[in-house]
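ugh ok fine here u go
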Amino acid sequence: MTFRSSLNKLNFALGRNPIIEKKPELRQFIPDPYKAVLLISADFELAWAWQYAKNANGNLAVALDKARLERTNILELVKLCDAYSIPLTWATVGHLFLESCAKNGLPHPALPRLPFFENEFWRFAEGDWFQNDPCSNYYDAPEWYCPDLIRIILAAKVKHEIGCHTFSHIDCRDQVCPSEVIRAELLECKNIAHGWGIELKSFVHPGHTIGNLDVLAEEGFTSFRTDYRNVLGYPQKRDNGLWEFEQTAEISYRKDWSLDYHIYRYITIIKRAIKANTVCVLWFHPSFDPAVVEKILPEVFRFIDENKDNILLSTMTDYSNWLSTQC
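structure:
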């Protein structure tokens, strides 16, 4: 086990990670008779998340492998959510709604492009932002489109939410992304979703690239998720009307943690939320190791199901709507 991993475990054991905020007037944030609120969101991206990833070294084969793994995991996730009645907020890249697309000179020529940039996770240094778009269809290029999976999510017994993750998984930071770029991406997502009978209200910034918040509000979004710290706390309402949900923890698989420790850790976080009367915001990438959906989440979801008298399970938008009646 690495020093960093040991320190992480120590901070968790001491209650330093996630931070637990002091209790406010909790009934503004926790509906009676519940003791905690639990939001779980999935960053639904397929190959779009990996095409410029530094840890893939520009290797598109990595992006395609991740997308195929995500497709397999999502099928199992939907079944698991149905088994335990767990609603998720699926922060969905807009291009995934498409059955197909074609080149008209360039892929999606009406959309303005990001300039070249580099951040903690990605490097886009040459070519066109959509240069890897196969301009094909979901039968021949299922790593870039997935209306089939979206239909499965919408047909699930559990009422999931489809949220927005931009159209093409862009860096949304103000210093990188001009407002006209993100606005065009949001409008494209909203127009496509409208054809599905879906109104997009919640937003998750790709790669935690928080920015252009006023544009989100202007385009009718009501909430977004941040990663500035890990916290069991309460939502904050921004001046522009957006609700900010601070993350509590990412559900992921770490090779230097045992399966039992993963299960213990995530269940303990939820127990702490119940004890402290807070909001717990969990999230994950569905491209995670299959052990998460096969071994870890069944135990975590079983615990949640057994404690539903204490936990309000909600999607980001349903909870935002309730908050707006209180605050």
